[in-house]
Amino acid sequence: MRLDKLLGHMGCGSRSEIKKWAKSGLIQVNGRLIKDSGVQVDPDIDEVMLDGEQIRYREFVYIMLNKPQGVISATEDLRERTVIDLLPDELRHFEPFPVGRLDKDTEGLLLLTNDGKLAHDLLSPKKHVPKTYVATVRGRVDNDDGAAFRQGVELDDGYVTKPAHLVISGHEEQADGTVHSFIELTITEGKFHQVKRMFESVGKQVIYLKRIRMGTLDLDPVLKLGEWRECTAEELEALQQHQQ
């Protein structure tokens, strides 16, 4: 790979800037000053230093985000704040995109990456990657709802969902006499507004929704809303192995 391409990919600067830095003696490869920014380097082997700082090349980034409400799952939008807006410039440079989407008013786990193959595998209907949500539902969710979800329910457009696993955590009566139910639901597909529409099909309404798991990836409980971190090597390996 050309040295200027490597440095450019890592967000160090433009090709003209990198050329100027090389001529100024700011770039070293394996301890040697490099005046020609077009030389070939091996990103896996060669040690590249820019102004005394080692530049470690990587092609892909994998980012776990705890998406807050009010932010849309898109890479750009003229009016709305996007999940990409929550990232620093050094990560935005890799041009990551959200793997799937969470509704604007849904919180929780969102994976962002520029690895198209992994994203495709995680979203492929053939892979049946499980996604787990916690929700607060207006209405008393009971075992009959769990049985219906296990069978698959018919949505408002006639689509019958694949079997889903419902866990009821508890109920709470409100001051106005209505009941709120607290649940955890695992689905293996991702139709538009699917969790909300599944509960609507049994006469209930989702009033709070948060994704906590996708495949083998669990939302880090340390991450506050709007915070992110890069996935660990162990998390990434588990995700990749799960898709094989």
Describe this structure in words.
By secondary structure, the chain is of the alpha+beta class. It is built from 7 helices and 13 strands. The chain has helices at 3-9, 15-23, 89-92, 116-123, 143-151, 194-201, 233-242; strands spanning 27-29, 32-33, 48-50, 53-54, 62-67, 97-98, 107-113, 131-138, 165-173, 179-187, 205-214, 217-218, 228-230. The strands form 2 sheets. Strands 5, 6, 7, 8, 9, 10, 11, 12 and 13 form a 9-stranded mixed β-sheet that branches. A 4-stranded antiparallel β-sheet has the order 2-1-3-4, with no helix packed on it. A hairpin with a 5-residue loop joins strand 9 and strand 10. The chain is elongated. This is Pseudouridine synthase. Residues 1-64 form the RNA-binding S4 domain. InterPro entries: PsdUridine_s_RsuA/RluB/E/F_cat, PsdUridine_synth_cat_dom_sf, PsdUridine_synth_RsuA/RluA, PsdUridine_synth_RsuA/RluB/E/F, PsdUridine_synth_RsuA/RluB_CS, RsuA_PseudoU_synthase, S4_RNA-bd, S4_RNA-bd_sf. It holds the Pfam family S4. Its EC number is 5.4.99.-.
